[in-house]
Amino acid sequence: MKILLWHGYLLGGTGSNVYTRALARAWSRAGHDVTVFSQERHPESFDLGGAKTVRPDVGGLLPVYVHDRYEGYVVKLLPETTWAERRAWVEANAAAVRERLPADLVFCNHVLLGAAVGTATGARYAVKAHGSELEYSMRGDPELQDWGREALAGADAVFVGSAHIRAVLEEVVGHVDRVLEVPPGVDVEEWRPRLRAEALEALVAEARLDPPNPGNREERLPDDANASRLHQFLSAEEPTVVYFGKLLRNKGVHVLLEALRTVDARAVVVGFGDYRQELEALAGPRILFTGPLEHRHLVQLLPLADATVVPSIFPEAFGMVAAEAAAAGSPPLVARHSGLAEVARGLEEEYSPHLRHLASFDSGSTEDLAAKLNELLSLPEPDRTLLRQAARRATVARWSWAGVARRLLEPFNYPAAHG
Questions:
Q1: Are 194 and 392 in contact (CB under 8 A)?
Q2: Tens-digit pLDDT profile for the chain (419 aa)?
Q3: What is the CATH number of the domain that holds 286?
Q4: How far from 285 is each of 51, 93, 272, 274, 302, CA to CA, in Å?
Q5: Residue 419 covered by a domain
Q6: pTM for this model (two decimals)
Q7: Cys-Cys link to 104, which of 1, 317, 381, 402 (CB 3.0-4.6 A)?
Q8: Residues 260 and 162 in one domain
Q9: Which residues are bridge partners to 2 per DSSP?
Q10: How far apart are CA 192 and CA 302, in angstroms?
């Protein structure tokens, strides 16, 4: 197939950015002709499996769902943009896609503004709803809800990552036809268990490659001197907990930090965001903040973690970080709600009966999280091994990218690229 994969944002970080580049890589490796449309300035720094890349000229405007800083752009929350700005932005992206037509499929990320771009191309298109646009921008905004419903009406398929997001989609835009549930994927070759000594050595080596960041002035770069900090912090074998993701209140990191006060473990907190300063004030001496890390760091860090906590207090479309941790052999402990609860159920199906309760904790409960962490970290080694193996097995069976990429094309009745 010739696939035009539209994504209006960057390719680094988390969420839909990671989804886009992983999907491009999986489709390209399967033999499809893929072109990625994004605002990434350095697409060559990511493994896209050989996919071509295009950066549409959007006139310097970036409509976003959560306020952030993007160098070289005027950034506005989507509901705060004018209709003229939205229409111009959609047309600029659609024009770039139309220049590459014909194609077998235009695959667009986000209900808005992705479905609107798909409609404007005049081509056959599908839409992936990620949840961020639904919860942060469209919910409670009748104009955006109406526009989203109209834009989705022409899609050949609308994909959601979980039953939770299927329900949210209907709550926000009303009934939508041709909705298919396909969870996000994990690169199970990249995210895999590693021997502790090798993982630590590789993590430090990757950190040495980071650019200087004096005073940590650049929030999107790893903290300065991470190589020595990580080596010193992780050298001794001690119970270790990891969080990675945005440092926003909605992500619930404060719940984890409060729980850790009664847990005998050290913790590594990875990410950036406007809540970092408040979180650091809550943290004890056994908690290391690293700033954002890329996958090249994280695939080495996660095998060093006895548990990875996903403490979000806001609905999540899918627990991608939990699935990645599980693939790396770091048992996830997730807040039991929304898409995270679906990940927990997938883990529980593989866990031994006496360990199933260690897949999740009551959302927002520092007491339950602390109790579960204490129990998980004190398991005898045979049980810890069982848990690690079962977490990995659940991911390989349910959330590998090769299978996800194939499932996303099944509705379009095209043969596999290799016959």
A1: no
A2: 999 999 999 998 768 998 999 999 999 999 999 999 999 999 999 999 999 999 999 999 999 998 877 889 999 999 999 999 999 999 999 999 999 999 999 999 999 999 999 999 999 999 999 989 999 999 999 999 999 999 999 999 999 998 889 999 999 999 999 999 998 889 898 999 999 999 999 999 999 999 999 999 999 999 999 999 999 999 999 999 999 999 999 999 999 999 999 999 999 999 999 999 999 999 999 999 999 999 899 999 999 999 999 999 998 877 889 999 999 999 999 999 998 998 999 999 999 999 999 999 999 999 999 999 999 999 999 999 999 999 999 999 888 888 899 999 999 975 444 43
A3: 3.40.50.2000
A4: 45, 48, 19, 21, 21
A5: no
A6: 0.71
A7: 1
A8: no
A9: 33
A10: 9
Q: Which residues of 111-140 are buried (b: 16+ CB within 10 A; e: fewer)?
A: bbbbbbbbbbbebbbbbbbbbbbbbbbbee
How many angstroms separate the Cα of 82 from the Cα of each of 9, 86, 172, 338? 19, 6, 21, 32
The parent domain of residue 137 ranges over 2-185+401-412
Could you tell me the CA-to-CA distances from 361 to 58, 313, 358, 369 in Å, in that order?
43, 12, 8, 6
Task: Let me know whether 252 and 339 are in one domain.
Answer: yes
191 in a structural domain: no
Amino acid at 253: V
* Tokens linked to 147: 């526009």
Is residue 190 in some structural domain?
no
Whether the link from the prior residue into 260 is cis, omega within 30° of 0, is no
Domain count, the chain: 2
